[in-house]
Specification:
This protein has 222 residues and is of the alpha/beta class. The protein contains nine helices and eight strands. A hairpin with a 3-residue loop joins strand 2 and strand 3.
Length: 222
């Protein structure tokens, strides 16, 4: 089963140092929640986020949402031929159960992830749909134990989705950045077997996920 990791994803609750910022407090009040219960989102918290550590990689939960939808609404996922993990910027890992249907509405998705961050698990009729645990990228790789790890980045060796897809096997792991700007940290790059670039310009994460998985699908179903 191929594994897909959305690495260093922009998914986190409001950090302690921003909880009292006016933009955060105001947004939380509108949602009827306290600041520590809501996702950091630069659409609402841009003023609060100015100057925080690793700013360019944070506050974009929509990137993970789009990418998760791309990965969980395709034949590969429905036939249990792919395992999805979301590794966050703060070294937490979300695992997905079989045939999980993630909300297409962003607001419902945000509510689901906020609940997951607080409760660590989302259950429906004794089936665990989502789970969250503290885990570094290297620890996740050790758990998966893939035969090869393919990273996709503009800093990698030039290739194409088709060439990469044709070289994948059931024990491969694909790594895509779940952030808006910047590059993989050294802790990610050091674990990647092969780092490839699939174009001269940067593509959004959900586009990379959809095209990469489609090329792999072609090797199985066509």
């Amino acid at each position: 089963m191929v594994s897909l990791i959305l690495a260093e994803s922009s998914l986190e609750l409001i950090p302690t140092e921003l909880k009292s910022h006016p933009s955060v407090v105001s947004h939380a009040q509108k949602l009827g929640k306290i600041p520590s219960e809501i996702l950091l989102d630069n659409s609402w918290h841009y003023a609060a986020m100015k100057g925080i550590s690793n700013e360019i990689k944070r506050g974009r939960p929509d990137i993970a949402h789009f990418s998760i939808l791309e990965a969980t609404t395709i034949p590969l996922f429905f036939q249990n031929k792919i395992k999805l993990f979301v590794h966050t910027i703060n070294d937490k890992v979300i695992s997905f159960g079989e045939n999980v249907h993630v909300p297409k509405s962003y607001h419902r998705f945000a509510g689901l992830i906020e609940k997951l961050f607080q409760e660590k698990s989302v259950m429906v009729e004794n089936n665990e749909l989502l789970s969250l645990k503290d885990q570094s990228f290297s620890e996740l790789i050790k758990q998966i134990n893939p035969s090869n790890i393919i990273g996709l980045s503009t800093t990698g060796k030039q290739s194409t989705f088709e060439k990469i897809g044709s070289g994948l096997n059931d024990d491969s792991c694909i790594v895509v950045g779940g952030f808006q700007k910047g590059h993989f940290s050294d802790s990610i790059k050091n674990k990647v077997t092969n780092l490839f670039s699939v174009g001269n310009t940067s593509l959004e994460a959900h586009v990379v996920v959809s095209r990469m998985l489609y090329e792999y699908e072609k090797t199985i179903f066509m």
